[in-house]
Structures are given as C-alpha cells and as structure tokens.
Amino acid sequence: MQIRYGYRIELVSQQELPLLTMLDVHPSRHHDVIRQDDMMAVSLADPRFPVPVERYRDQFGNICRRLVAPAGGIRLSSAGLLHDSGEPDPFNPSAQEVRPSELPDEALIYLLGSRYCETDKLGDRAWELFGPIPPGWQRVQAVVDFVHNHLTFGYAYARNTRTAAEAFEERIGVCRDFAHLAVTLCRCLNIPARYCNGYLGDIRVPKDPAPMDFNAWMEVFLSGRWYTFDARHNARRIGRIVIARGRDATDVAMLNSFGGHSLQHFEVTTEEVEEANAAMIVTKDRVGWRAERAAAL
Questions:
Q1: Domain 2-85+253-296: which CATH class?
Q2: Contact 65, 23 (CB under 8 A)
Q3: Distance of alpha carbon 244 from alpha carbon 224, whole angstroms
Q4: Rounded Cα gap, residues 85 and 23, in angstroms
Q5: Which residues pair with 194 in a beta bridge?
Q6: What angle, rounded to 10 degrees, do the helices at 137-150 and 175-188 form?
Q7: Considering the domain 100-238 in this protein, what is its CATH number?
Q8: How many other C-beta atoms lie within 10 A of the C-beta of residue 134?
Q9: For the segment 90-133, what is each residue's pLDDT rounded down to a tens digit?
Q10: What are residue 213's phi and psi, to 5 degrees?
Q11: Is the pTM of this model over 0.85?
C-alpha cells in the first residue's frame, strides 16, 4: 500500500523567530519513501521567496532542521508519499526480556529516568503491579493494558508539563501522556523503552472525527530488537510512520521556538491512496514544485 502524508503549519510572530523542527520521516523509513517530504518554508508576509533551511541529525539519529522565521510569520509545509507493507505492528508473544548486563550499549540510556519519565517515583508501584507477571512480551502487554485503562484520553486534558507520575495520579491525558507512563513503567521493570512520535492515520480502522494530528507511542527492547506498543490505542495498527525517537517528548519535540509567536494554522495529513492515484499525486506535485520555483525566480 501507499500512504500520503504531510503537514502545514503557520506561525505568526512580530519579530524574527529562530526555529528548530523535527518533522521529517525518520531515516529508518527512507528506503520506503517514493516522494521525499522536503520541507517548504515561506514567509507569510511575502510567500514568493523561500526561507533558508539547514538540516542536521541529532544524537538519536533524528533529522532536524533549523531556520529563522522572518518578522510577520512563516508557513512550514511538506507532502510525501511512502510505500508501506500494509501489515500491522509486529506481534511476537514469545519475545523475552534481556538482562541489563547483556543489553547493547545503545539501549542502556532507555533504562534511565528522564524529564517526563520519573522512574524514581514509580519504581515501587511498577513492581507491585507487574512483578508477578511473567517477564517478556506478556509483562509489557500488561503494562500497556494498564495504562490504556488507567488513563482517560481527551484533547482538553493536554498539558505540556505533565509527567508520567502526574499522569498516573491524575488519570487523564493525551497520547504523549499514555506513551510517557508506559515508557516509565517499562523502564522501572528493567525493560528498555523509548518514546516515538510520527504519523498514524485512520487506515483500515473507524475514522476518528477529531482533526488529524501527530501521534506518540513507544518501542521496547525484547529478544534483541525493538517492538512497537501503543498504550493510547492498545491495538496493532497499520501505516505507522516514525518521525523521531528519544527518551521522552523533550528529545523529539516537533517544534522548538526561541521567541514569542502564535499558532495560526495546524494541519496534518495521513491517508492511504490507490497506486494509480499515487502516480497522479507525484506528477501533480512535480509540476507544482516547478511552478513555485519559477514564480520565486
């Protein structure tokens, strides 16, 4: 199957605004990309000319971009096309935990506490709740089941300072809170867990009436590899596209700004397309890109 994905974000500011973004598809999916999701950045005051953008990779291997929005504001947009197997998230109930002493070096950081994942506050509760459960896939799934049932989802509950321990006590949150709590409980149980965000469309599931948004989930290290678990939906989903991975939301913030601004427009697209339509989309986008470049010149 093929998935069309992208975004359009408009920020209004009265002065120049330095920005860091993390909105590109993760390099681990680049071999699936049919049409690259290059960011277009233009001034809201004068959209004829592009804003210069630099690109680099952070310490976790995520693709980042840095730019300076001109006074008046900026529009960031992207549209990509990606091949996907159409298979749901991998399922392996025989996957086993790996002892901390035998973990690869790069997995050790995902056992430690972090800004939103306070392992020191939830360690005792984690072992009380999940210690008696057989280690491995079954224990991780028990964590996911607990978080899914323990928290009530609602966009009105969003708070960017809420930690895992606070979500545990308040019993409310959005997808990042579900992911933070599940990640923290797994780390308390000596299971490496990392925070992920990206695209997750309503592909072959009932359509969510809420506007499309980016999503957060986690990956855990079992039997020598990383597996996807989603405490928010608690289901094996199709068409998940990773943008970034890290210790928690601090590491994978999609937008960091260094100055005052307001959000004028936010739109995310993730949808399955027929291959015949996908070919038309690629052709249309190439023509549109040439027209925009010609206008700028």
A1: mainly beta
A2: yes
A3: 20
A4: 22
A5: 219
A6: 140
A7: 3.10.620.30
A8: 10
A9: 999 999 999 999 999 999 999 999 999 999 999 999 999 999 99
A10: -145, 170
A11: yes
